[in-house]
UniProtKB/TrEMBL annotation:
It comes from Photinus pyralis. Keywords: Phosphoprotein, Two-component regulatory system. GO terms for biological process: cellular hyperosmotic response; phosphorelay signal transduction system. This is HAMP domain-containing protein. The lineage of its organism: Eukaryota, Metazoa, Ecdysozoa, Arthropoda, Hexapoda. InterPro entries: HAMP_dom (IPR003660). It comes from the Eukaryota. Signal peptide: none annotated. One of its GO terms (cellular component) is membrane. Residues 70-117 form the HAMP domain. GO terms for molecular function: protein histidine kinase activity.
Length: 118
């Protein structure tokens, strides 16, 4: 919520700074919520958060959210490409995207499946 008080001088500057921070935080929250909804709930990949006029931590957070969304998009699309090829009888495709953790386990399992079917 923004500061609504009528003020002058240094207090006005402080009010302006706080209100600007509130605007930036609101914009950031809207964009992150949009990406989380698109990817996590709606299953739509490829979205990116757009937050204008932010610096420092806010820019870093935005870039990290976008990086996470792009990595997930790339990984899921690569897995979909390979599994679609297998479903059509094409056993020449393998998942080549760099991944870690549980996605790496999924990649390895699918690639082993392709090897065994071929």
């Amino acid at each position: 919520q923004k500061v609504q008080a009528d003020c002058r001088g240094e207090i006005f500057e402080l009010k302006s700074t706080i209100n600007s921070m509130v605007d930036q935080l609101s914009q950031f929250a809207r964009e992150v919520t949009k990406i989380a909804r698109e990817v996590g709930t709606e299953g739509r990949l490829g979205g990116q958060a757009t937050v204008h006029d932010v610096e420092g931590t806010w820019r870093d957070l935005t870039e990290n959210v976008n990086g996470m969304a792009m990595n997930l998009t790339t990984q899921v699309r690569e897995i979909a490409k390979v599994t679609t090829a297998v479903a059509k009888g094409d056993l020449t495709k393998k998942i080549g995207v760099e991944v870690k953790g549980e996605i790496l386990e999924l990649k390895n399992t699918i690639n082993q499946m392709v090897d065994r079917l071929g």
